[in-house]
Amino acid sequence: MKINEFDFSQGRGKWRQMLLAGVIILVLSVSVTNANIKVLIFAGQSNAEGVGSNHNDLPVDLRSQQDDLFFVDRYNTNWRKMDSPNTRQRIDQGYGPYGFGGEVTLARTIADSLGGDVYVIKMAWSSTSLERDWLNPDPGYSGHRFGVTPGDSLYTRMRSKVYDALAKLENNTGQETEIAAFFWMQGEGDASSNFKNGQWVANFHTMYEDNLVELAAKVRADFGDANLPFILGRIGDDFSTSNKWTNVRNAQVSFAQSDVNAYWINTDSFPMATDSLHYNSQGHQELGVAFAQKYLEVSSAIVPTATINWISDAPIVLPLTGNTKVWVSYDANTGLDLIVDVLSNDGNYSWFGGTRVEIGAADNKVQEVPINIFGALTSGNSYLISAKVVPRGGNFTQAIAIQSRVRLTQ
């Protein structure tokens, strides 16, 4: 029995090749920092909750169970796959027994762009004010509607539910979690409802920007990321042209412009329900897509990281022709491609960018990878096999951070 073993690292990658009596068993481990499970928070009032929608209006492919989209809501912090209608959030205010919010197309758009599983925590309460209910609750109003007790608020209630959901996800997966972005669709309550402590208060709308600053500070402090992206939807202009409404809209833009990690999206063109206050089903879908697009835009500067383990599922015996397979297990924080190149020492065999497999943002995923050999790998020759992780759609010259090679000699 002849065994040749070569271990070396380039960057933080490691190849190991063992040769046993003409049988090559190939093991590749390419390692970069492990990625936490990234979780998105989708919060606000009725236009976050989904009032105005009906799940039957969703495209057929989104009405079925989404195996890569997971969510919890204020009613239930146990993680489940997005499904319709059984796990859709029940909407209390009409428009059919079950509705949906922008979380559906938010998650679907991100998953389709980056690959992998997407996790959303939805915390939405209809007819709420940032001042009166979320930050500084009116015990008479908020307590009556939501059971908020002295010293409590919708924000502290949301925080508790988020902590609970994250703990359950970590317990279920064995992986650490992190909040990747906070989405906020709210403001109508502060632009129209100024009743607090049994009297009318005239300045909710003038307090809105300061309250957004407070909310963002709380979210970032409580979820451990001073630079957490805060992405808000500016309330639409269909329902009212009052000074209060205009002030809230302006406050949302001003806040986003003054906070380096805050962003706003324009919702004015999104289709509305007949009340001109809530989005209809199409509008909620467009809201989710717009949120996702902004998230993808602002998170593009994130340095991709991955851990990839590639182990042949069967010995590779030379000469080899046709196809063979390996299994890849990986962790990744974004959608990436794994490409495999083959080059012979004598120059008669070269295949750059040959095998390409998409890997998504996920942890501990196992995926089958076909290796298509267009010409025979023969005994008595040396082959340089290169594995590179590249941006989605990138080529072998764009390898990011990791690049490992081994020379196989038979």
Describe this protein with a few key phrases.
410 residues; alpha+beta; seven-stranded antiparallel sheet; seven-stranded mixed sheet; 27% helix; elongated; disordered N terminus; disordered C terminus
Give an overview of the whole structure.
By secondary structure, this protein is an alpha+beta fold. It has ten helices and 20 strands. The longest helix has 20 residues.
Percent range of helical residues: 25-40%
Along the chain, the helix and strand elements come as: EEEEHHEEHEHHHEHEEHEHEHEEEEEEEE
Rg is 26 Å
Q: Provide the low-confidence segments as ranges.
A: 1-34, 90-96, 401-410
Could you tell me the strand content as a percent range?
Answer: 35-45%
What oligomerization state is this entry in? single chain
The CA-CA distance between the termini, in Å, is: 14 Å
What's the story with the biggest beta sheet?
A: 7 strands, antiparallel
**Number of helical regions:** 10
Round the mean pLDDT to the nearest integer and report it. Answer: 76
Quantity of strands, as a count: 20
- Which geometry do the CA atoms define? elongated
Structural class: alpha+beta
